[in-house]
Amino acid sequence: MNRRHFVTGAASLMLAGCVGTQQRAPLSPAQDPYYLTMYGPQPNEEFPVPAVDLNKVDPAYYRRVVDYPTPERAGTLVVDTPNRYLYLVMENGKALRYGCGIGRDGFSWGGRARIAYKKAWPTWTPPSEMVDRQPELEKFRNGMPPGLQNPLGARALYIFEGGRDTLYRVHGTLEEWSIGKAVSSGCVRLLNQDVIDLASRVPNDTPIVVLQA
């Protein structure tokens, strides 16, 4: 091998080495396989749930474990209305945090209550006053069947104060864009994948605390 071929070959190897050690650009949260799996399709549900379009959700509202020092005991749900988060309190100052949407005028009820019971793919029955305001809902006065278009989504957790139904729910939604916003009729809405996860973790009679601004 003559000197010219040696130099050319060495230069090629050096260039190849440089290319091989280049750093890839970090993935955005919406491209992260961890979140793509977390919010992927759920075909085994009674009504198969499609994947979430994560580009329509602020990554700040993706489900994750966070530091959350609180006097509330583990297993309690805490709705942080101003910041649009729902926390499931864990041991050792941690919590599982979910992004949520709230009512247009804020979550108008606050205080301590409990999740009396849960339903998978619930029927939605609009309150009479809602039907009076929106006559197009008359056909659902006696209940809207479960399904992907049902406003309660894949799961509903029913909030009772003592023995009284507050009429507020923690429920699912297909409307990804609404997470982190005040748009619903007053309930706390989570992505369907998140409310399915939450409902699997909390039993009936789970305490819930709703914090106002």
UniProtKB/TrEMBL annotation:
L,D-TPase catalytic domain: residues covered: 75-211
Keywords: Cell shape, Cell wall biogenesis/degradation, Glycosyltransferase, Hydrolase, Peptidoglycan synthesis, Transferase
Record pathway: Cell wall biogenesis; peptidoglycan biosynthesis
GO molecular function terms attached to this record: glycosyltransferase activity; peptidoglycan L,D-transpeptidase activity
Pfam families assigned: YkuD
Any one GO cellular component localisation term in the record: extracellular region
Residues in coiled coil: none
Annotated InterPro entries: LD-transpeptidase, LD_TPept_cat_dom, Transpep_catalytic_dom
Residues forming the catalytic site: H171, C187
Biological process terms in GO annotation: cell wall organization; peptidoglycan-protein cross-linking; regulation of cell shape
Family indicated by similarity: Belongs to the YkuD family.
The protein, known as: L,D-transpeptidase family protein
